[in-house]
Design a protein that fits this description.
single chain, alpha/beta, Arc Repressor Mutant, subunit A, D-Maltodextrin-Binding Protein, domain 2, 3 domains, seven-stranded mixed sheet, 12 helices, 11 strands, 23% strand, WH_DNA-bd_sf, LysR family transcriptional regulator, DNA binding, LysR_subst-bd
Length: 306
């Protein structure tokens, strides 16, 4: 098989003429003379040994083989553009910083792996991590320009571009004194448990209560606290149980029992940027690393679950 020497300029001219169906329009689109386009097409056809375009008074139309080759030519040009984009991105990431906003559970269990991989790939770029108590504060930081990228619960406001990273299940944490039973937890058993809630987790409490209400259930709240670590300690002492997002509960002490809800409930964790905003290239590089680490949708770290 003889070697074929194709030039990028030939493929660009071919795709332009095929798209515009006119040599003059293609030349205008490429910013070159019509004779340059005609010469590129002619030498391409000579190199391939086939006729790609039918010339006529009303323009240019693809031959059957031209139609087949067009998709390949577009794919090649697309790959070349991708290569150039990645190279330009890397050149632009020799300095600068990316500001990341997240709540404690994300900052503790999700971001270290992402940051480590990003820093290995772009060691000259500084990652600034800012932690917040609530997801609403993360989103406000994006609005105020205090952060470039934020990790939050989806769905969120339409002003953000978002991507799903993983699903996080709400689980039931039971005291060590609870009889161990491998059977699924029932609504009747759940209704008898004194519950401990974090009063600052307004969104999570609403999500849980709305889910329980669908099945005619409510929580018997025994304690309202302000820290998730307090919930864990109180459960260890047999003071109550809790329904909590698994990622928030981590690390779960070995003696605490963990069970599914009778009907599962999940929250969606995603990453967000402010739509239509001018962001540093490091932001998109960090976003790519985060998606590579956690997508396709994965399950976050977890302890035992019955």
């Amino acid at each position: 098989m003889s070697e074929i020497n194709l030039k990028i300029s030939q493929l660009r001219a071919f795709v332009a003429v095929a798209t515009c169906q006119n040599f003059s329009a293609a030349a205008l689109d490429l910013g070159v003379s019509q004779s340059t386009v005609s010469h590129a097409i002619a030498t391409l056809e000579e190199e391939l040994g086939v006729l790609l375009l039918m010339r006529g008074r009303h323009g240019a139309t693809l031959t059957p083989i031209g139609q087949e080759i067009l998709s390949d030519a577009r794919q090649i040009l697309g790959l070349l553009e991708s290569i150039a984009t990645k190279a330009n991105l890397d050149r632009g990431l020799q300095s600068g910083q990316v500001r990341v906003a997240a709540v404690r559970s994300i900052a503790t269990h999700i971001l270290p792996k992402v940051i480590a991989q990003f820093c290995r790939k772009f060691p000259m770029v500084q990652v600034v991590l800012v932690e917040y108590d609530r997801y609403l504060e993360v989103e406000q930081a994006l609005r105020d320009g205090q952060a470039d990228i934020g990790f939050t619960v989806l769905p969120t406001a339409p002003e953000f571009d978002t991507w799903i990273l993983f699903y996080d299940e709400f689980v039931v944490l039971l005291p060590p004194t609870t009889d161990k039973d491998d059977r699924p937890l029932t609504w009747e058993q759940l209704a008898q448990l004194p519950m401990i809630i974090n009063q600052r987790s307004v969104h999570h409490n609403r999500v849980v209560d709305e889910h329980l209400a669908q099945f005619g259930q409510t929580r018997q709240i025994a304690y309202r606290v302000r820290e998730d670590s307090t919930i864990s300690s109180m459960i260890q002492q047999g003071l109550g149980a809790a329904i909590i997002a698994r990622l928030v509960a981590e690390p779960i002490p070995d003696e605490i029992q963990v069970k599914h809800l009778p009907v599962p409930l999940e929250r969606v964790i995603g990453v967000a940027i402010l739509a239509n905003s001018l962001l540093p290239s490091a932001t998109f590089a960090f976003l790519d690393v985060a998606k590579a680490v956690w997508c396709p949708v994965a399950t976050p770290p977890a302890s035992k679950l019955l």
